[in-house]
# Entry
Amino acid sequence: MERTSTEIVKAADIPAIETSADRGAVDSALAYLAPAAAAALGLLADAIKRGTADRESVVEALKEAAVHERFAEVLEAASEDVMDEAEDLYDFDVRLDADNFSGAASEVRNLFRWL
# Structure
């Protein structure tokens, strides 16, 4: 049985999600975004495991929402930030960090091509 995203959310019935930001572990106005995104994905995984959501519907919804593109954009932004802060653009360690972020962004995009 295929369910809409609204039905999946209603089936979750989660009263609250505590994150590391709630516990004071991270001091940033954006600290709530990453744990909230991770929690949302966790809810989708849990819905599939409990049988309250069809795996194909969830994967298609993730693809339609371009979750992989948004995640890749975060990694690309991190890569650009590493290079922007670099004092020496030819420093191997700095370039390696930037390349790792950029490579991870490419891999995230590639993963969704297989689905």
